[in-house]
Design a protein that fits this description.
alpha+beta, globular
């Protein structure tokens, strides 16, 4: 499990969090949204990226943080 920060253009509403892997949604003053949180594996990451594509969000960046030990 790794932590991710996915930045997209525009402001996403909080209701998208469930469809986007339960990631936290933070709207920035610069007009972007950052989704942050842990995802289990690349399959879940690809699901989130597909969800962003499906809602027409423009991907700006994707950062992978530290791996989190599984319980």
């Amino acid at each position: 499990m790794s932590t991710y920060a996915i930045r997209v253009a525009g402001h996403l509403d909080d209701h998208w969090s469930g469809r986007l892997g339960g990631l936290a949604i933070t709207r920035r003053a610069d007009g972007t949204t950052v989704l942050t949180g842990c995802l289990v594996d690349q399959a879940q990451l690809y699901g989130v990226l597909s969800g962003l594509r499906d809602i027409g969000a423009t991907l700006i960046s994707l950062e992978v943080g530290d791996e989190v030990p599984a319980d």
